[in-house]
Description:
Elements: H1 2-5, H2 8-33, H3 38-90, H4 96-118, H5 122-149, H6 153-177, H7 182-202, H8 209-231, H9 243-251
Pfam family, one: Bestrophin-like
Protein name: DUF4239 domain-containing protein
Keywords: Membrane, Transmembrane, Transmembrane helix
Amino acid sequence: MQQLIRHPIILLIVSFALMWLAAWLGHSVLRKRMPLDEDSRDDFRIVQSATLTLLALVIGFSLSMAVGRYDQRKNYEEEEANAIGTEFIRADLLPQSSSAAIRSGLVQYIEQRIDYYQTRDAKRVLQINASTSELQSRLWSAAKEGAMTQPNPVTALAVAGMNDVINTQGYTQAAWLNRIPLAAWILMGLIGIFANLLVGYGVKNASKKNRFLVIMPLTVSLSFMLIADIDSPRNGIIRVAPLNLIGTAQSIGRP
């Protein structure tokens, strides 16, 4: 299930198949075995409307959660770019040797951060995380060494800036791992199946059966795909582009 929600197109195909099967079962099996008489039709409409309303609410809340996480990832990308650009400038406050080491390291560091946003390869992500951790250790050591050589409030600004660089990367990592819970996906899928089952059960005109049994499953499946796409930082179509990081990289001398 985890792999399914990380690939929106596959989720669209699988969810459409399940929703359509539920609608077909409702019309072809459930309706034949338990025919809906006129006395029960009003009660059925109440249950059907309530189920569809609940499905719409769950989809709406899930979409809101996904959009919120997408905005969070965009904000942290901007914060990362600002922190790196600020520290590149503050490096002048440290002794020459430490300043040169920090600036050289930040050029490599921002390349790794841009790759982190752009890559889709899980193995490459692990390599980037390892390289990022190593670069952070080198940058922190350079900042600490420069501050200890000239301990004063001015060099402390450079150390604080380096702390911001490291912290914003951690915030970004956490934001990318923060996804819609699996339990919410399961609940949404179950409600979608029951809703389509009721829609199929309520279709009365056999000549219109095929049309109605496709529209509802397709609509629900497209909604699931949109939510998964926004919620998937790396595999979806809607992704956070590292525009701020690229701009900062160009300003600090990225080739």
